[in-house]
Amino acid sequence: EVQLVESGGGLVQPGGPLRLSCAASGFTVSDSYMRWLRQAPGKGLEWLSGILRDGSTQYADSVKGRFTISRDNAKNTVYLQLNSLKTDDTAMYYCAKGSQRGQGTQVTVSS
Q1: In contact, 28 and 44? CB cutoff 8 Å
Q2: Fewest C-beta atoms under 10 Å: which of 43, 80, 93, 108?
Q3: SS3 state at 8
Q4: DSSP string computed for 36-101
């Protein structure tokens, strides 16, 4: 059974960093295309970043240069490092494999 469990969200001041984690089970992240998505209040789901099986990475223009996706194959975990956070980054963040995603972790950027 595929399971994705996100963690690491919280309240952070503008300009601050956070690191989100996505612990996977039931499959191997290094054999999969993994994505990070987010959904802000009242808005649709937004794709942020992806990491391919060969380790290459992709980013939406809205987060390029501020967010970094990575994975730890030994821990079967995918990460999203969020830097230079803005209030507009406030959202529920999800990791996803195909059509499946976890329960999400809330990121709130506020002073």
Answers
A1: no
A2: 43
A3: coil
A4: EEEE-TTS-EEEEEEE-TTS-EEE-TTTTTTEEEEEETTTTEEEEEE-S--GGG-EEEEEEETTEE
Q: Which residues contact 6 (CB under 8 A, 6 or more apart)?
A: 20, 21, 22, 93, 94, 95, 102, 103, 104, 105
**Phi and psi angles of residue 91, each rounded to the nearest 5 degrees, phi first:** -175, 170
* Residue 25 banded pLDDT, cuts 50, 70, 90: very high
For residue 34, report the phi and psi dihedrals to the nearest 5 degrees.
Answer: -110, 140
**Cross-strand partners of 83:** none
Cα(18)–Cα(82) distance, rounded to whole angstroms?
A: 5
Which amino acid is present at 48?
L
CB of 69 closer than 8 Å to CB of 49: yes
Mean pLDDT of the chain: 97
